Amino acid sequence: MPLTETTLSKAKGELAAAAKKAGAEPQYAIFYSSSVGGQLWCPGCRQVEGVVKKSFEAAGKPNGTIVYVGNINEWKDKGNKGRTEYALTHVPTILRLEGVGVAAQATADAQGKETGRLVGGQIANSSHLKTLLTGGEVPRYEP
């Protein structure tokens, strides 16, 4: 399935809609910096962009939504929704969200429960990314 894109201000609604469409399949929220001057301002985001596309855009691949966290000043703000609503400390970050479907859709957490997270350079590690995408337990990020 192709990747979809959204902004932090629309993320909860967009992720919930994608989860409803996907049913019981896991959803993946991919948090990137926003584009400035035609490219992502975060070097780490630019570094993993190709591997993320390859992992999500082919037929039979998992459902992913790219969520842009804002420009560098918006990201550095401690009140940034990525920081407050998704506990992000770094971009890029990929969250695996599960438990969506009929029961979750009736609750406030219709986008699902986080069951896995990759941060920064972990995404470029093909073993870690494959483990996340196949439902396995990934190592905790240590900055």
UniProtKB/TrEMBL annotation:
It holds the Pfam family TXD17-like_Trx. The keyword rRNA processing does not apply. The keyword Nuclease does not apply. It comes from the Eukaryota. Its EC number is 3.6.4.13. Keywords: Hydrolase. GO terms for molecular function: hydrolase activity; RNA helicase activity. Coiled coil: none annotated. Residues 21-100 form the Thioredoxin domain. Belongs to the thioredoxin family. This is mRNA splicing protein prp28. The lineage of its organism: Eukaryota, Fungi, Dikarya, Basidiomycota, Agaricomycotina.
